[in-house]
Amino acid sequence: MITQLFNWRTALAMIAIAIVSGTVFYSNYLSKKIATDEREKVDVWVQSLKTRAKTNEQVTLDLTNAITSRNTTIPIIETDEHDNPSGQGLNLDTAELKRDTNYLRRKVKEFKSQNDAIIVEVNKDPLIINKYYFGDSKLLVEVRYYPIIQLLIVALFIIITLIAITTRNKSTQNQVWAGMAKETAHQLGTPLSSLQGWVELLKEKPGNEKIASEMTKDVDRLKLVSDRFGKIGSTPQLEEINIVTQIENMVAYIKRRASENVIFSIYTYDEKEITAMISSPLFDWVIENLLKNALDAMEGKGSIQIKIKNETAAVIIDVTDSGKGISKQHIANIFKPGFTTKKRGWGLGLSLSKRIIEQYHKGELFVKYSEPGKGTRFRIVLKR
Nearest CA to 75 among 29, 140, 30? Predict the structure, then answer.
């Protein structure tokens, strides 16, 4: 799948480079050709002005007037030898020209950076010259900016394609995970039923009460795990449940299996009941995963603090440990399937927890704070 995605990206990148490179070269060719053509037109226009100033023949005047009137796209400004505008301009913003007295000078400076002036000798003795500065026409500007527009279109095309491929791959992965979870739950069903039967037989024989009691706990635990896996991939039934009681029960369960050197504390801001719409088995799974990760991070000694805050728009649950923390480069990856910094484990706990909270409960699960050597705080936001 990764190789296929890489091949798609490589192919798209090569196509984009080819399209953009061809467009840039052709656009540069066109812009140079148009620029040369426009300079020739301006030169003819200037020469026609010069000719018109030196003749009184009507035929010549008609010809020069026809030539000068054809220029409706190229902006031109006439100046003296010191680049002072004479007040004459062509194809300029007339409204701006009337409003701003420095408009012509600014345009001269702009045109000077675009094209060399065409110089005309008006008089030899004394020497008087005029300069004609001209800017790029709208057509030339559009041709020069065309490669950028083309690049944006190609980039947008590539981004949309990559998003579609990534979404499809994620959808396939989600279907695989959901299928594996349901298959696991299905496979656990048969041995669980058998174990329940054996436990009932043990209960009927005197002297096996303690063994049967412990086995019942293990069977119930397996049933819970099977129930959790069975709900993955299906739309869970959400119920309004007291979050405080739910978390207290899970903390009590984890506390019995944790070291005596780990201190658990729950803060509810003096509220005994804080309700939210949740799926109990799946929500317990999330809290269990967060608590187990906290225990692993502390290596048998430290404190775990759970704060439950009831707000108008959401219920906020912070799970904070005093463990080794998470480095910045790992924070962005901890929710990815398969990522783990532990020697044991599949790296699926946090990934499944995030999916349970965000997809099934429409909430949020993220790292609120973490610093190596000081601990980590995970935050769950259950929106109302």
Answer: 140
Sign of CA dihedral 88, 90, 94, 100: negative
Q: Taking all residues of the chain, what is their mean pLDDT, rounded to a whole number? A: 81
Neighbours of 192 (CB within 10 A): 17
- Straight-line distance from the first to the last Cα atom of the chain, in angstroms, rounded to the nearest whole number: 38
CB within 8 A of 113, min separation 6: which ones? none
Residues ≥6 apart with Cβ < 8 Å to 238: 277, 278, 279, 360, 361
Q: Quick check: 222 and 188 in contact, CB under 8 A?
A: yes
> What are the start-end ranges of the H helices in the chain?
2-53, 58-69, 94-99, 103-114, 138-204, 209-231, 243-256, 280-298, 328-331, 349-355
Give the integer Cα–Cα distance in Å for 241 and 245.
Answer: 9
| Domains of the chain, CATH where assigned | 2-142 (no CATH), 235-383 (3.30.565.10)
Q: Confirm whether pTM is higher than 0.90.
A: no
pLDDT tens sequence across 301-320? 999 999 999 999 999 999 99
